[in-house]
Design brief:
With 205 residues, the protein is of the alpha/beta class. Helices cover 47% and strands 13% of the residues. 28% of the residues are buried.
Length: 205
């Protein structure tokens, strides 16, 4: 977070009217300084290189570089900028797994976004708890929250080493979790585990 009392933010969304509305909303709050705005993901990434800010608020579906590509880019360059995705798409889990710091739905009152950005600026991660019909499957419901997180990230193609790094656990602990996942999901290997997960969860990308 910046050294002064303001949280420096950048707002990016394909809808310029939305960007304008959010800019005015945040400018009316003395806790924020809107450093810049963008109407596509590529421009947002250029702003990352050009100016210093703490939190980026971005849409998911943007021209040139969408939310997934922006988050992937920031993760690869190990950027310290924290990102909140503000979208009507059901992509909270993807945002979390790609390294985003928060998600807020456009179906909710816009002013709720202020609290989410505040929390993210303080170092917290803010994601809604999502219930899915797939979790009624007895095999999936038997998984612990950590096992479910690992199964989700396994479906993105993460290696054991990357899983260990993301959750700050040892490689042996990852193997232990995978063994439990295989047993509970009644599968023999990671390929079958991913197939099991994908069959139950049809991601809305």
């Amino acid at each position: 977070m910046s050294t002064n009392s303001c949280l420096n933010i950048v707002i990016a969304d394909k809808n310029s009217l939305l960007v304008g509305g959010l800019t005015e909303m945040f400018k009316q709050d003395v806790r924020f300084d809107v450093r810049a705005t963008a109407t596509d993901g590529e421009l947002f990434l250029k702003l990352v290189d050009r100016i210093c800010f703490d939190v980026g608020i971005i849409g998911w579906k943007m021209p040139y570089s969408d939310g997934r590509q922006v988050l992937t880019n920031l993760r690869e360059r190990e950027s310290s900028i924290r990102v909140v995705v503000y979208s009507g798409a059901n992509v909270a889990r993807q945002v979390c797994l790609l390294g985003g710091a928060g998600f807020y739905s456009k179906s909710k009152p816009p002013d709720g976004l202020i609290d989410v950005v505040c929390q993210v600026g303080q170092g917290n991660s803010v994601f809604p708890y999502e219930k899915h019909e797939a979790k009624t499957d007895l095999r999936l419901s038997s998984l612990t929250s950590r096992e479910l997180e690992i199964l989700e990230i396994l479906s993105l193609g993460y290696s054991n080493r990357k899983i260990a790094s993301k959750f700050e656990i040892s490689a042996n602990t990852v193997k232990f979790h995978l063994k439990n996942i295989y047993e509970k999901a009644q599968v023999d290997n990671r390929t079958q585990a991913v197939a099991f997960y994908n069959q139950l969860y049809k991601e809305e990308l």
